[in-house]
């Protein structure tokens, strides 16, 4: 799972590739590398870590030129994150970068070794370089075509040869886009990374090969027959990618939530009339005939999706199954259902595979994503955008709360059509949702209090986040955040379930974060923890007198409706995790072993 890039044109390829790779780092940052052809030779530079590390190395050796090159940023799957395993992989006059997995690499590797090829890495992608070299007979496109004919797995690959003034790309189950610019042609894993150079973009489709030259790009199928793909003009907002006054993107993005929630909400309601303008691409009759909904997502987006477990039956009048995308392949969905993919990036491989499955089974499909032009928008019948602007920190924050905003309005819309709620109810609910940005802002002003509590969490060996109903997904999200960036083993549990196992792990070195802003039942769960010596940090509603008496630390949250309370608690636990990681001196925006977007299954 990685990001790939290529350039051919009149300019020096190295700096262009580095700029593209910087925008692809969300796909992995275990290692990075570039290879360019200069004076009939391949020059390659690789480094462990991020593109910034690669850039430092590059600047020391900038004496090489070369107007054609490829680049890669890696998230390790096969082989450790070392320089040895970094791409580009080179085999004689051939260099290759690859995103995907070569599932039959061991068989191919054995055959290539028998044929005298020497392997330098433990990485599956290296077989591609040798295989293309093996088949090379003076025509790079032919060689790539023969090579992929032997590959089982997924690939977005870019190959270059010292003997050919072109890049040859191939794709299957991994995205690749070609950009046609005034100063050359570009190729990369996504539109966003090359939009800094051109807005004329062509998406490659599965099982095609692209020959990219200085002046033109030609698409063929594996038999060499031309394939017609059109360029589209994309218009992306690329302005917002600075830290401004924040030490980390994550903190900046946490603070952007009043605006991102508001912007998202305003895109699906009319603020004057409090009407819902959200279009899900289904007529009222089609909505009424839906049997159920499947909300499918991964990671943080899955936690946003979990909110529908409570929201949909109550408000939308529709049964819902919320599934993690990697498990959806084992589930047989009911036929007359609405499939809803929730994905910040729109590129998560498991989500895309689930959506394809749902589509193949004839389900209506809806995507909720933050990224314009992402793959999910191509696959779904209809897309709803969260309006957050780019999210750079690996740990998702503002997109999570914006996804909840969309799901809430979606539930109200379905509920209206299904006759579960009246239009008066709907207007009240919309007005309540509109108060959320103000409450988030108010909560953000308590940042210093949360920071103080985080100083204690930094000492923790284990954190338990507990909540009930809407606060349960928020608790899971808090635990995920704490694990992702503060590297503290954390569990997000339904409060009532703690006594069925996790309680055994509670010691005086653990912290229990209780999301207790509404409902009284959680009080007894907190007492169960207290009796076992655990330190209790409780987020309570303003004016609470009960939980306050038993918790070690209490932070007050504005008193609101349950789902909005869950949004506020989520913001609070984002801050808690952030300041815990900061207290521990961790890198925060790019946590170890993770990637912003997971593009392998
Ligand atoms: C990765 C990221 C998470 C994210 C998840 C799903 O694991 O590190 O922050 O929640 O992917 O990503 P998506 O783009 O589909 O929401």
**Rg:** 25 Å
| CA-based shape | globular
Portion in strands:
15-25%
The CATH architecture designation of the largest domain is: 4-Layer Sandwich
Q: What's the average pLDDT?
A: 93
CATH class of the largest domain: Alpha Beta
Helix content: 25-40%
- What is the oligomer described by this structure? single chain
Walk across the major sheet and give the strand order. Answer: 3-2-4-1-10-9-11-14
CATH H level, superfamily name of the largest domain:
Aminohydrolase, N-terminal nucleophile (Ntn) domain
Looking at the structure, the CATH topology of the largest domain is: Glutamine Phosphoribosylpyrophosphate, subunit 1, domain 1
Q: Which segments are poorly predicted (pLDDT under 50) over 5 or more consecutive residues?
A: none
- Structurally, the number of domains stands at 3
Number of alpha- plus pi-helical segments: 21
Characterise the protein shown here.
There is one protein chain. With 601 residues, this protein is an alpha/beta fold. The chain has three domains: 2-233, Glutamine Phosphoribosylpyrophosphate, subunit 1, domain 1 (4-Layer Sandwich), CATH 3.60.20; 244-434, Rossmann fold (3-Layer(aba) Sandwich), CATH 3.40.50.10490; 440-601, 3-Layer(aba) Sandwich (Rossmann fold). Helices cover 36% and strands 25% of the residues. It has 21 helices and 26 strands. The strands form five sheets. Strands 3-2-4-1-10-9-11-14 form an eight-stranded antiparallel β-sheet. β9 and β10 (184-188) form a beta hairpin. The radius of gyration is 25 Å and the shape is globular. It starts with a strand and ends in an 18-residue tail after the last helix. The structure holds 6-O-phosphono-alpha-D-glucopyranose.
């Amino acid at each position: 799972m990685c990001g790939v890039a290529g350039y051919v044109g009149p300019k020096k390829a190295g700096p262009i590739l580095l700029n593209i790779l910087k925008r692809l780092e969300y796909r992995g940052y275990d290692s990075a590398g570039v290879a360019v052809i200069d004076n009939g030779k391949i020059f390659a530079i690789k480094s462990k870590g991020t593109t910034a590390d690669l850039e430092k190395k590059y600047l020391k050796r900038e004496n090489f030129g070369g107007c054609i090159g490829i680049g890669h940023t890696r998230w390790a799957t096969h082989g450790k994150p070392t320089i040895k395993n970094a791409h580009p992989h080179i085999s004689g006059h051939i260099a290759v970068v690859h995103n995907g997995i070569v599932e039959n690499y061991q068989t191919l590797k054995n055959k290539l070794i028998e044929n005298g090829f020497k392997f330098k890495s433990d990485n599956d992608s290296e077989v591609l370089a040798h295989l293309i070299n093996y088949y090379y007979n003076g025509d790079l496109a032919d060689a790539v075509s023969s090579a992929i004919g032997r590959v089982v797995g997924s690939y977005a690959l870019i190959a270059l040869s010292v003997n050919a003034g072109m890049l040859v790309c191939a794709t299957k189950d991994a995205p690749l886009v070609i950009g046609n610019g005034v100063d050359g042609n570009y190729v990369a894993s996504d539109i966003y990374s090359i939009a800094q150079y051109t807005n004329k973009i062509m998406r490659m489709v599965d099982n095609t090969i692209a020959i990219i030259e200085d002046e033109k790009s030609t698409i063929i199928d594996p038999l060499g027959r031309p394939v017609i793909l059109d360029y589209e003009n994309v218009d992306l907002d690329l302005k917002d990618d600075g830290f401004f006054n924040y030490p980390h993107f994550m903190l900046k993005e946490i603070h952007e939530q009043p605006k991102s929630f508001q912007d998202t909400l305003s895109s699906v309601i009319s603020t004057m009339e409090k009407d819902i303008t959200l279009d899900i691409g289904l007529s009222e009759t089609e909505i009424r005939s839906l049997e159920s909904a499947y909300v499918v997502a991964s990671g943080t987006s899955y936690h946003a999706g979990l909110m529908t477990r409570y929201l949909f039956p109550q408000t939308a009048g529709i049964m819902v199954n919320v599934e993690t995308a990697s498990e959806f392949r084992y589930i047989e969905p009911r036929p007359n259902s609405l499939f809803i993919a929730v994905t910040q990036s729109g590129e998560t491989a498991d989500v895309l595979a689930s959506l394809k499955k749902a589509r193949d089974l004839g389900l209506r499909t809806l995507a909720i994503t933050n990224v314009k032009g992402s793959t999910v928008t191509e696959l779904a019948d209809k897309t709803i955008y969260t309006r957050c602007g780019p999210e750079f920190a690996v740990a998702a924050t503002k997109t999570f709360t914006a996804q909840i905003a969309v799901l809430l309005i979606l539930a109200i819309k379905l509920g209206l059509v299904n006759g579960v709620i009246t239009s008066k109810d709907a207007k009240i609910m919309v007005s309540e949702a509109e108060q959320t940005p103000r409450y988030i802002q108010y909560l953000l002003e308590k940042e210093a209090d949360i920071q103080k509590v985080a100083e204690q969490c930094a000492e923790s060996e284990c954190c338990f986040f507990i909540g009930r109903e809407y606060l349960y997904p928020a608790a899971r999200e808090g635990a995920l955040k704490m694990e992702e960036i503060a590297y503290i083993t954390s569990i997000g549990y339904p409060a009532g379930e703690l006594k069925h196992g996790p309680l055994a792990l509670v010691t005086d070195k653990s912290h229990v974060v209780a999301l207790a802003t509404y409902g009284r039942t959680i009080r007894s769960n907190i007492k169960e923890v207290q009796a076992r010596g655990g330190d209790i940090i409780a987020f309570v509603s303003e004016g609470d007198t009960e939980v306050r008496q038993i918790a070690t630390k209490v932070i007050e949250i504005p008193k609101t409706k349950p789902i909005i309370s869950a949004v506020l608690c989520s913001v609070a636990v984002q801050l808690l995790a952030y300041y815990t990681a900061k207290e521990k001196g961790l890198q925060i925006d790019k946590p170890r072993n993770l990637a912003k977007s997971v593009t392998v299954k």
